[in-house]
Fold these 2 entries.
Entry 1:
Amino acid sequence: MKILKLAKENLDFFVAVLPAFGEVYAPIRRGKGFVFERPSRWSDVQMNYTRTMLPPKKLMLPPRETTFSFDPEKGFQDRLAEASKPMVLFGVHSYDIYGLNILDRVFAQAKYPDPYYIARRKNTAIIGVDFVPDDKHLASSMNADFVDSGFDLFLSDIGDSYLVLVGTSRGDDMVVMSNCLMQAPTEADFNEYKNRSKVRRDSYKVHLALEDLPEILEMEYHSEVWDEMGKRCLSCGSCSMVCPTCYCFDVNDEVEFGSRKGERIRSWDSCLLRTHALVAGGENFRGARSSRVKFRYYHKQRGFVAEYGRPSCVGCGRSVDVCPAEINIISVIQSIRGDRDGITGSTPASV
Amino acid sequence: MNEPKSVLIIDDDILYVKAIQTLLESSGYKVRSASNSRDGIELAKALQPDLILLDVMMSERTEGFFVLQELRRIPALSRTPVIVLSSIYSEEPIFRVDPEAGWLPANLFLAKPVDPARLLTEAERLTSGSLEEKGAPAAGRKQV
């Protein structure tokens, strides 16, 4: 892997040439939080953000999208051209890159590849940036605090400069185009990288033991913990909406009144919502809130491990941030491991 | 009689704007100006000028590049001819990325101080004729 160095004072120049590779999205401040949006000037871009409200999933699998339209006269028209519009996602944290890598397994490498997701993914350049964890990040527990694939370039803060890892040939094209801005790193830069990497690893405040979690979940399938979680869960679905790896969606055909023209709409769904497992005839396979909470954690922490060899949680901390009932990966694991404090919703430093 | 062609100048250097405005008006152009990017984008939307002259280093040194991206995202302005006028290469010598390399979705880059005769020639070329003759802006990705 090629490694270069970019002075921080020249980062604005580097970002200025990125539109050659697609529409640039970067973390910008919105209210008290951060969002991936198109910056209107360099000073909008936040390099030291904690986490965005929604993960970059929103750009690969939009909350609501028309996949095709149909018309008895014109026939079927897909929207793949729109989905193929080149984008550059600048400033993505490692756990969100990991999240996209996990979505790839579901949408690009599974039995039924999704052409819309694949079109966006293929045409999107990813430029990662490292981050300092706060008290909600648990990416190190999820092995998502470092990525070695899924990015075109990755920037790591080494003081006055960024160490730039070049991950793909598209990343190399970016380097070629802006080559005058890049320099060769020195031994001192590598040492600084190693020092900061250690400091970053040591600064995680949340540590989860996940090694035997699938087995514990197996043992605790009938635990009353799920009933207690079910009583607290508001079924709002916020945890799924902000999750970088939740991918349930619903599909509806919206047909114009008085005609047979219409559009097929795909929109985000959540397994926490009451209607998620509701089928024709009124049967609901997960009518109880407790069964829906349980399903979410079994899918992420047990089903995904069996299928793909790792949990689908990447430790971004978003669900810790948004759940109004303080149900999250930390409190759930604490509870099923037998620490009753987890039920009260306190956020522990170590589980 | 033909309507005069309209030109919008987006530049925070008031004296420079006055000089260019005088030059263009004496050649029959109708000229409006904005001294910051926000006003410039709003004025461009409202006026839909025949030509935009855009500075780069305004309140931020790469501001004009971002303005250009925003202009190109507005459907009515996505093909409007834009000449970027800047001294960025002389004032920021570290920035040597060739404006002709395809990353800048402008029709033309001219270094400040600009030659008045050249500016008038290019303004005339870009405000008349077909899109092909104008050299349509490179709004897409660059193959390097």
Entry 2:
Amino acid sequence: MAIKRREFLKIAGLTLAAGTGGLTTFSALRNGILEAAQYNRDPKGLKGSRWGLVIDMARFQDSKAIQKISEICHKKHNVPTIPNPRHEIKWIWQEGFEHAFPGQESPYMADTMRHQPYLVLCNHCDNPPCVRVCPTKATFKRADGIVMMDMHRCIGCRFCMAACPYGARSFNFIDPRPFVKELNREFPTRMKGVVEKCTLCYELLAIGKPPACAEHSNGAIVFGDLKDPNSEVRKLIASNFTIRRKPDLGTMPSVFYIVSGKEERLGGHEHAG
Amino acid sequence: MLDKALTGSRTYWGWIVFLLAITGAGFLFYLQQFATGLGITGMSRDVSWGFYISQFTFLVGVAASGVMVVLPYYLHNYKAFGKITILGEFLAIPAVIMCMLFIFVDMGQPLRVLNVLLHPTPNSVMFYDMMVLSGYLFLNILVGWTVLHAEKKGIAPPKWIKPFIYISIAWAPSIHTVTAFLYAGLPGRHFWLSAIMAARFLASAFASGPALLILLCLIVRKFTKFDPGKEAIQALGKIVTYFMITNVFFLGLEFFTAFYSGIPGHTHPFVYLYAGLDGYNKLVPLMWLSSILAVVSLVLLLFPQLRKNETTLAVASICVFLSLWIDKGFGLIVGGFVPNPFEKITEYWPTAAEATISLAVWAVGALILTVLYKIAVSIKEETGGEAIH
Amino acid sequence: MYDTGKIFVGIAIFLLFVAFPFYYNLGKAVAKPEPSIDTPVINQMEKRQCVESKQTMKTLHMKMLNDWRDAVVRDGQRLYVATDGKSYNMSLQNTCMNCHSNKKKFCDECHNYMAVKPYCWGCHIEPKEGA
């Protein structure tokens, strides 16, 4: 034998690696007609540096009005209604005070206050732990402050769900399509195996509209740019006592809740959304 | 050298077929999971990591424990381990492969796994985990194979393998530290938010890994003509003893911080695991079993007469392995998710499908372990056993 | 040769596996794909043109959709300026499928022929058939 079997295998292996490696590099560098393509923002789109929300629960008429917010958001974004609570998917929903702000309830607080409903959603933190841990940048922070989801890239590892201190994220344990009551044909659904959450209606912001929850809240949810000192959100924060969820964790949430004491009118029903 | 795995007794082949059967069954369940989603597991919106990830966490420790035989032999010339360094390395390989398989079956979109490489994210601990696990696998295959091949030929291994051996010694604790970092840096999970997580991980790894290695050495001695050596097994026993003490001590430290400070975020998960919280107590019997097994194992290990007796040492090793498997391979992960960020409780228990898939991954690991050990042992039976330094 | 019997059996099994796609599909002639652009929206167009030329779309629609995906989701851009200067909203569901509302007779024609199953439709809602 002129060449030993091992030598042959070594040479064959290296050739294969070089060949496929070279081919891949070549096709990656290939120029196509689309290289010169131009993309633009919609001029109508809203511009901001740190989008945030100020929520005044006292301005909701009744618990039905609060429930409606979840329904509008979920309907617009094809969020499924899955009966099995283990597989539940929710983007915005209500929790009682003691659950939305655990640790801040006090032992002698009125029951109505303890069970006071608060709308909870992704806080679009300024220092988001979910973005820090995502191994593929499938969840990432946009320049305008939105913590965004790229459903195409998500590998479904659910590290972000472990990292989120607010339980804001849901995972598609099963195919959600059969559970979407009424499809909104202008927005995609998700498929099984990816994580989803509120994305602050980025698709509406892009065409100049505010988020659906803010729009339909009759002024209870105010949307604006936290970095703009003249925005309504900044004025509300400056003139009211506001709290945020778990602020001591350093996540810097962008959702503020006005606590005025007037929330008691709602009667304090506890709904899990 | 692979041809050594193709010849064997009826028992050997029976064992291989048995493992293949389990793998096949699990594979069928995995096809179901691939088609319908992770909904067939017991995981939920609240407990989003379950049995798969906890098994991965436990097995990274077993993989890292290979360093416990490699380090004394190569850095300090501890001759007794000369015969079994290969067994340590060939245990690390299937352990790492099992880790990777458990991550794969846990992914919601497994076909997108290459996204981690296509879009590298240095700020994500999981990215590093993928890198260090792959690197460790490569190192162990390279070192194990090269050293064994040299032994087969009856010569010293090539000089260039030495740096790789030293790198692997440093790499081993790193893989487990990185895995601990997956948990220890998450601001919302107070059960895990502890500086001692990485230290706990290493202590339990260096107790459970060598415990398994003791059992494997005893099995090898029983079924083959190769004797790893009484001194090696005793040395391993001492390692297991000291690291089990350390592990129990570290757990005690966690208990102290939680309960002396009294902070609810820290105490609630412990209360849930060991006593039940608000009536939810599914894991309590399991956690107490882990504690009892730990105490029993320490009794058997601390007394030299019991440790020197290889039967009681075997029992102690089984106790150590099971105790830590429950603690790290179940309690630690589930405890981080209970209660959830809203202080509500959703319990977790693996489903039958989930358990079968997990069993299949273990079977694949056992299969690779069997094949590698068959090769190593066959060669050692021929050459007389000692790796030449 | 050693183990001649085993080797020949091995080669036979190997050939059985490798040739499977060929003999399995023997006799099944599949017609050349004819994607149809007969949809209400396209029929109403004065000048029937897509975002880019037919040849470009044929070769590069996959790449274009990928580029659009990254531009919309990751870069926050909505509008695509085509090579002819026209501006389009980058959306598979709302732009592409608005004209090509006959997925079965358009997209699926070639995809089925090529045995390609793009996973876009798992999330992006297909237009209602019968359009």
